[in-house]
Design a protein that fits this description.
By secondary structure, this protein is mostly helical. It has three helices and no strands. It is elongated and about 120 Å long.
Length: about 130
């Protein structure tokens, strides 16, 4: 006994071979177009000239142009154009501030070190030195 999917595949393959239907039951696409051939739509028997045909010669079909699509990368480019320079500027300003604070702390540490040099003669240290 054949699986239902196998039978369906066999029938679909047979239909495609006969030219009845394309994959998944869709109508088979028309044959390949050669270069220079236009896509002609079958016109209705009572249809007049298409709007915008403007008296084109027989066999030439007016194909309206599509509106130009928006570039989805434009907002990304704008974000990079704004974000990258502002990020670099903010980094440099923060670095400058950190260096300024570091320099200030180094000056304070140097002053403390200079003030801490010399001999100290206090009562407390004399008692410890004598072993009281």
């Amino acid at each position: 006994m054949a699986a239902p999917g196998g039978l369906r595949g066999l029938l679909a393959a047979a239909g495609r071979a006969a030219g009845l239907a394309g994959p998944r039951g869709r109508p088979a696409p028309p044959g390949p177009r050669l270069l220079g051939q236009s896509c002609r739509r079958p016109s209705a028997p009572g249809a007049g000239p298409e709007p915008g045909s403007r008296g084109l010669p027989e066999g030439v079909e007016y194909i309206p142009t599509r509106k130009k699509g928006k570039n989805p990368m434009k907002p990304v480019g704008v974000a990079w154009a704004i974000g990258l320079p502002s990020g670099i500027i903010l980094f440099l300003l923060a670095k400058r501030e950190v260096d300024k604070n570091r320099l200030e702390q180094l000056k304070i540490r140097r002053k403390m070190k200079e003030a801490n040099q010399g001999e100290y003669e206090t009562e407390r240290y004399k008692r410890v030195a004598r072993g009281a």
